[in-house]
Each structure stands twice: as structure tokens, then as C-alpha cells.
């Protein structure tokens, strides 16, 4: 290890997180040197547009470039920090950096979700560090917790709020009455959203993070394209208000549960990203703004609850900096927390998941309609716990809301299909899972 010699980094990206990192490296320089035993110096920064006006000044002595070769070919650069986002250019840069013997730190969950196993194999082959604390849940140290602190545990489940932008939008719609577009615009202005915000609102960003967490928690490869993902794009103010009347908040949830498989003592994973109702008294319901939270259940520790800023410049940059300090200390590569490659996960089909449901249908306000819809539920053995009919008749009908007891997604979809075939529905039905107390508290 190069004690006393500065750790020179090549930084790819000088946007929300990259500029936050430069700010923190300057503000916390004394503590960084005390903790790492050496300085961390940004030698070169890679951007797309070198002429762009920057809000944060370039660190003294740092070069700006638009040529990634200036990072990977510079023998004086020890580590490359990838904070560009996207897949192709980021992947090419990380592969080239590892090939050139450089350590890598990244916050790029989209890339890790799709190409993680390949990148971890290359890093292992080259005996290089590949760290990614900032890729999941911003400032919350969940990667380190799963990879190191909980490594002696058998994880049973993870459930949480993994996307700050969506949580910010839902909180603003629910408590301040903002509409979806206004709330999204604010999240973008505050630096929470992805460059392509559909990744946030369609649930894909949370899905990327869940895939990374599944590897860390179970050592299994859950292919991204096999994960059931629903976002919040089509969520209506009506459902947010109706859920509140029942005492619930709607949250975008990422969840994975390990169920006993029976075969070879293995596990089967039930995983997905979906908007769900969370009772207002539960901790997850109280997570507001761009905060994230994660409830981890493991066999020795029992339940643990992590809560903190899930997005934004400095919260994320702090996580990147922690990884850089680990690199500066010369810590041995422990990139995945597992000794071998990831085998493929055995997956429970989404249709077989069991849950209680909130179901809203728009119906004609006529005698017998409630009996007919209840009949469709009963035909699929679905037991209804509560029901309300709200509001005045409008062109789209009147809303009927059911809260069901536990059932499978398949049975619930079959019941709605029966109602549709019987001509009972004035528009497409809406349904959300309801998170149970023992799953989230
Ligand atoms: P950003 O504000 O859009 O900044 C991206 C930076 O990368 C810009 O400086 C851009 O250059 C540069 N860049 C993009 N593509 C490039 C390319 N092909 N070649 C060279 N430079 C390129 O993004 P960000 O919010 O900082 O996010 C960066 C990464 O961190 C992403 O992977 C994101 O998912 C992740 N992340 C973000 C947050 C957050 O709260 N924002 C939190 C956790 C993780 P120009 O400035 O010249 O355009
Ligand atoms: N766009 C992401 C979010 C950034 O809103 O959570 C943090 O990963």
C-alpha cells in the first residue's frame, strides 16, 4: 500500500453527484487524510461538454476532458470513479479501467443490475476493488451492512422504499396536494431524479437497486428482466385520497422474501417493485420526501430498520467518498460479499404471490352491482374485509373500493376479469397490494 502517497482519481461525471464529491473532498480534506492515511486528489474529470457552465468550481490543479482515454491511460490515476450514469459509455469505461489495473467506484445501479456479474468477474480476475455503496439508497450504508456487518446472518427478507424521486412525488401529492407533474419537476430541480426520470416513476430505478440488494443478501443472480415491476406513473390522486380514508399511505415498495423451496434445502425468491398500501402507523408509511428506508430481516439479527436520505448531491457523494477512503486504505477486494460466482435464483411467479389487496372499480350506481362484484370475488374464493362506495356518479361511474383478505394475484386478476366480462366495470380496475404489519415493522 502507498502510505503517504496521495490516491489519484479520475472522476467520470461532474453533475449532481460528481460535483458533490468534489465539494466534500475539499470540505472534509482533513478528516479524509486522518482516516485514510493519505490525501485523495482528483486528477482529471471526464464530462460530455467541456464548455458547459458549472455551478461548482473545478478543484485546483484538476484537468477537464471529454476523452475517457485520459482517465484509463494515465498511469498516475489509481482509481476511476464512475458518476456518469447510463449503460454503454459507463460500462466501456469501467471495463477499460479494470483492464488497466485501476480500482473502480461507481453509483451506477442501472449498470450493476444489468452487467454486475460480468464486471465483478473482471474485477476478481484483475484483483481490483469495485465498490458501489452509493448505488443503493443514497446515504444509507446498506451495501456495507449486507456485505460486511450482516455477513454471518441468513437474510430472510428485504422490504423498503428504494427510490427517492417516487417517494418525494407521493409525499408531495399526499400531504401538500401537488399534482404529479409539479412534484416530479421539483424532484428534478432538487437533483433527485435520474437523467431519464421515467426510470424513477416507472419503477426501474428501484428494480435496479433491488437486483443489487438480492445479490448482496442472498448471493443469487435474479435477472432484471424476470422481476415484476410497476411504477407510480398512473397513480391517481383519487386512490391516494381513498387509501388515506382507510388509514393507509401509498408507497413505491421494493420487496424480496426468501421462501423455503424444499428442493435441496434451497430457497425460492418472491421479489418485485410495486406501489402498495402501508398502514399509516407503520414506520415505512412515515418515510417522507426523498428519504429511503429498508427493513431487513435476518435469522440472527432479527429485524433491522435503515432510514436516511436516498438521493441528492451530498448524501450520495458521502457514500462514494466512503468507498474511496476504503480504496485509499488499500482494503482487500471484497466486491460481492460472496466467495464464488452468483448462481441463478429460483423465482416465484408474480401470479403466485399472496397478499391482501386494495381494489377500486368504477361501476354504474345501480341496485345489485355490489352483489355482482362481490360474487366475482367469491367465485375466486376471495374474502372481502372492507368495502366502501364513494362520491357522486360521474361519466366514469362511481368508485367501489374493496379491501380483501389474503389471496393470490392470480385469483384477484381472475375475479376482475369475471367482473369485466360481465360488463360491470366502467373503466380499467385499479389494485394494489397491502403491506402486512409483520412484513414492514
Ligand atoms: P448528472 O447530474 O446527470 O451528471 C452526469 C455527469 O456525467 C455530467 O457531468 C455529464 O457531463 C457526465 N456524462 C454523462 N454521460 C457522459 C458521457 N457519455 N461521457 C462523458 N461524460 C458524461 O447525474 P447524477 O445525478 O450526478 O448521477 C450520476 C450517477 O449517480 C448515475 O448513475 C445515477 O444513477 C447515480 N446516482 C445519482 C443519485 C442522485 O441523487 N442524483 C443518487 C445515487 C446514485 P456534462 O456535465 O458535460 O453533461
Ligand atoms: N433517482 C434516484 C432516486 C437517485 O430518486 O432514488 C438515487 O439513487
Describe this protein's structure.
This protein is of the alpha/beta class. The chain has helices at residues 16-27, 29-36, 69-72, 88-99, 109-126, 142-149, 164-175, 180-189, 198-201, 204-218, 237-245, 313-328, 369-379, 409-421, 437-440; strands at 7-12, 40-46, 63-65, 79-82, 103-106, 130-131, 155-161, 228-229, 248-260, 267-279, 291-298, 302-309, 354-363, 384-389, 398-404, 407-408, 430-434. Strands 7, 8, 9, 10, 11, 12, 13, 14, 15, 16 and 17 form an eleven-stranded mixed sheet that branches. A six-stranded parallel sheet has the order 3-2-1-4-5-6, with helices on both faces. α1 crosses α12 and α7 (164-175) crosses α8. The two termini are 44 Å apart. The structure holds NADP nicotinamide-adenine-dinucleotide phosphate and L-homoserine. L-homoserine binds next to α7.
Write the layout of secondary structure elements.
Blueprint: E1 7-12, H1 16-27, H2 29-36, E2 40-46, E3 63-65, H3 69-72, E4 79-82, H4 88-99, E5 103-106, H5 109-126, E6 130-131, H6 142-149, E7 155-161, H7 164-175, H8 180-189, H9 198-201, H10 204-218, E8 228-229, H11 237-245, E9 248-260, E10 267-279, E11 291-298, E12 302-309, H12 313-328, E13 354-363, H13 369-379, E14 384-389, E15 398-404, E16 407-408, H14 409-421, E17 430-434, H15 437-440
Bound molecules: NADP nicotinamide-adenine-dinucleotide phosphate and L-homoserine.
Which kinds of small molecule does this entry bind, naming each only once? NADP nicotinamide-adenine-dinucleotide phosphate, L-homoserine
- Give the CA-CA distance, first to last residue: 44 Å
Largest sheet: 11 strands, mixed
SS class: alpha/beta
> How many helix segments?
15
Approximately how much beta-strand content do the residues carry? Answer: 15-25%
Mean pLDDT: 94
* Broad shape: elongated
pLDDT below 50 for ≥5 consecutive residues: which ranges? none
Amino acid at each position: 500500500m502507498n502510505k503517504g502517497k496521495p490516491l489519484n482519481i479520475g472522476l467520470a461525471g461532474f453533475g449532481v453527484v460528481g460535483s458533490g464529491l468534489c465539494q466534500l473532498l475539499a470540505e472534509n480534506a482533513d478528516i479524509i487524510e486522518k482516516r485514510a492515511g493519505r490525501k485523495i486528489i482528483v486528477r482529471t474529470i471526464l464530462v460530455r461538454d467541456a464548455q458547459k457552465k458549472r455551478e461548482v468550481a473545478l478543484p485546483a490543479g484538476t484537468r477537464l476532458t471529454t476523452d475517457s482515454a485520459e482517465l484509463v491511460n494515465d498511469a498516475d490515476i489509481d482509481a476511476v470513479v464512475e458518476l456518469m450514469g447510463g449503460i454503454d459509455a459507463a460500462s466501456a469505461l469501467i471495463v477499460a479501467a479494470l483492464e488497466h489495473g485501476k480500482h473502480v467506484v461507481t453509483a451506477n445501479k442501472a449498470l450493476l443490475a444489468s452487467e454486475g456479474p460480468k464486471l465483478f468477474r473482471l474485477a476478481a480476475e484483475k484483483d481490483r476493488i469495485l465498490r458501489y455503496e452509493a448505488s443503493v439508497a443514497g446515504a444509507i450504508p446498506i451495501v456495507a451492512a449486507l456485505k460486511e456487518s450482516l455477513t454471518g446472518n441468513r437474510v430472510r427478507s428485504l422490504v423498503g422504499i428504494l427510490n427517492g424521486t417516487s417517494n418525494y412525488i407521493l409525499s408531495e401529492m399526499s400531504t401538500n396536494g401537488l399534482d404529479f407533474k409539479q412534484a416530479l419537476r421539483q424532484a428534478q430541480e432538487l437533483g433527485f431524479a435520474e437523467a431519464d426520470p421515467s426510470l424513477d416513476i416507472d419503477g426501474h430505478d428501484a428494480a435496479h437497486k433491488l437486483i443489487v440488494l438480492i445479490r448482496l443478501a442472498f448471493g443469487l443472480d435474479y435477472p432484471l428482466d424476470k422481476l415484476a415491476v410497476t411504477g407510480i406513473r398512473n397513480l391517481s390522486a383519487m386512490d391516494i385520497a381513498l387509501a388515506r380514508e382507510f388509514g393507509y399511505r401509498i408507497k413505491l415498495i421494493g420487496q424480496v422474501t426468501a421462501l423455503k423451496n424444499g428442493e435441496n434445502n434451497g430457497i425460492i425468491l418472491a421479489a418485485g417493485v410495486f406501489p402498495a398500501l402501508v398502514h399509516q402507523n407503520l414506520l415505512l408509511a412515515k418515510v417522507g420526501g426523498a428519504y429511503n428506508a429498508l427493513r431487513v430481516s435476518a435469522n440472527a439479527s432479527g429485524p433491522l430498520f435503515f432510514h436516511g436520505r436516498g438521493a441528492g448531491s451530498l448524501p450520495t457523494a458521502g457514500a462514494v467518498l466512503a468507498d474511496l477512503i476504503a480504496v485509499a486504505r488499500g482494503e482487500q477486494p471484497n466486491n460481492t460479499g460472496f466467495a464464488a460466482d452468483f448462481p441463478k435464483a429460483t423465482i416465484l411467479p408474480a401470479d403466485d404471490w399472496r397478499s391482501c389487496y386494495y381494489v377500486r372499480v368504477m361501476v354504474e350506481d345501480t341496485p345489485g352491482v355490489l352483489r355482482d362484484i362481490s360474487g366475482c370475488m367469491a367465485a375466486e374464493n376471495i374474502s372481502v374485509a372492507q368495502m366502501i362506495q364513494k362520491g357522486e356518479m360521474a361519466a366514469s361511474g362511481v368508485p367501489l373500493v374493496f379491501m380483501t383478505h389474503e389471496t393470490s394475484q392470480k385469483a384477484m386478476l381472475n375475479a376482475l376479469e369475471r367482473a369485466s366480462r360481465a360488463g360491470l366495470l366502467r373503466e380499467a380496475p385499479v389494485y394494489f397490494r397491502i403491506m402486512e404489519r409483520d412484513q414492514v415493522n
